[in-house]
Amino acid sequence: MSKVLTMLKLQQKLNDETNGLGWEDGLTNRGKQINWRRCIYIEGAELIDSYPWKHWKNIDASPDYANIKVELVDIWHFVMSEILRVNKKEVRLSLEELAKKIEDAISNLEATKEDNFYKEIEAVESFIGKVFCNFEIIDFTKSFFEICYKLDLDFDSLYKLYIGKNILNKFRQDNGYKEGTYKKLWNGKEDNVVMQEILNSSSNIEPDELYNRLEEVYKGLN
Fold first, then answer.
1. 186 occurs within a structural domain
2. Percent of the chain scored above 70 by pLDDT?
């Protein structure tokens, strides 16, 4: 199975379990409105806040590239969710056909890392602007991957982080995230950081093993 198809299937499963079947119609099974494009631009703003862009605060700080990559993966969750929604409502390709079209579109992308963080911010803002334009699955996906490459996140790294974040999101939902009882700070570290440390400790960790490792740490929290 291709990595793109694996991610699409995982995202579909996560959305089905989190929001209920039929979420593509725009409502969760609890009647909450879903707006994936709003999710994308809000996460984009959070990504930009990982840069020391403020001229009045922490002016000598460096960009937090570790968090920037996590934010890109969060955005990818929402990009795929909107892709899946549009595909089901309008395009109606099988997931295999959709994955193939995405793979073909990004296979020859050429985008190099920007030479300063102000240009990186401008690239992200340009991408966010496309959320408000007519949405075409393949063009928008290409734009997202161009941003990833400009911010030095290659496809394989995105895939590994996505698998990690997808499992973490499932773990959060299973442990009270919607109800507000979930603990996001684990012994002084955000759960995102712990997840990345587990990923980095094993080059070929399987999703089920990652979930079990997260559970072990979470059960040991004070």
1. yes
2. 100
